[in-house]
Amino acid sequence: MPVTTRRYRQEDRQAFIDLNRDWIEEYFVLEDSDRQQLEELEASILGKGGQIIVALLDDMVVGAGAILPPHHDPQDGRQWLEVIKMAAQKDMRGQGIGRAVLDALIAEGTAMGADAIWLETNAELKAAIRLYERRGFQHLSADHLWPTPYARCNVQMVLEL
C-alpha cells in the first residue's frame, strides 16, 4: 500500500512528537527549542499560521513535517516559509516517506502564497540533504546564513518557488 499524506489532526499529536523525538535523540540532543515546539505543538505551528502534514501507511502515522512562517524574517520583500520537524519512522526510512511529506509541505507552502521556502538541518543527515537537493533546495553560503535557535543546525537551504 502506498504512503499517503494529509493535514494534521489532533489524534496525530503524539505520533508527531514521538517521530521527532526519535530522530533528534538518535543523532543529537533534544534542545529547549525542540521541547517548546513539541510541547506547544498546536500553538507553535498552527497558531503561527503554519500547517502540519502527516504521512500514513495502513492508517498509521509513519512520517511528519511542518511548514510555517520562518523564525527569522530576512525582510527582503519575499513571502518566506520554513520547513521544520521533518521525520520518518526509523524502520521505514528510505521508502519515500520523507519525499511524500516534503512534496505535501511544498504544495501547502505554495497554497499559502510562499515564493521561497527555507530550512535548516545538519551535515550528518546526508539522506535528508540528498532529499532536499533532489527537490531543488539550494545550499546557502556561509555569508548568507540566518540565525538559528538550534545548536545542531549547520546547513541551511532554500527552495525558490
Offer a few descriptive terms:
161 residues; alpha+beta; Aminopeptidase; 7-stranded mixed β-sheet; 5 helices; globular
Descriptive overview:
The chain has 161 residues and is an alpha+beta fold. The chain has a domain of 111 residues: Aminopeptidase. The chain is built from five helices and seven strands. The model has no long low-confidence stretch (mean pLDDT 96).
Strand order of the largest sheet: 1-2-3-4-5-7-6
Based on DSSP secondary structure assignment, what is the total number of beta strands?
A: 7
Pick out the low-confidence regions: none
Radius of gyration: 15 Å
Tally of contiguous helical segments: 5
The CATH class designation of the domain at 4-114 is Alpha Beta
End-to-end separation: 31 Å
Helix content: 25-40%
Can you write the helix and strand succession as a string?
EHHHEEEHEHEE
CATH topology-level fold name of the domain at 4-114: Aminopeptidase
CATH architecture of the domain at 4-114: 3-Layer(aba) Sandwich
For the biggest sheet, the summary is:
7 strands, mixed
CATH superfamily of the domain at 4-114: Gcn5-related N-acetyltransferase (GNAT)
> Approximately how much beta-strand content do the residues carry?
25-35%
Mean pLDDT across the residues is 96
Q: Globular, elongated, flat, extended or rod-shaped: what is the shape?
A: globular
What's the structural blueprint in terms of helices and strands?
Blueprint: E1 4-7, H1 13-27, H2 32-39, H3 41-44, E2 51-57, E3 60-68, E4 80-88, H4 97-111, E5 116-121, H5 126-134, E6 138-139, E7 155-160
Parallel strand pairs: 4-5
Antiparallel strand pairs: 1-2, 2-3, 3-4, 5-7, 6-7
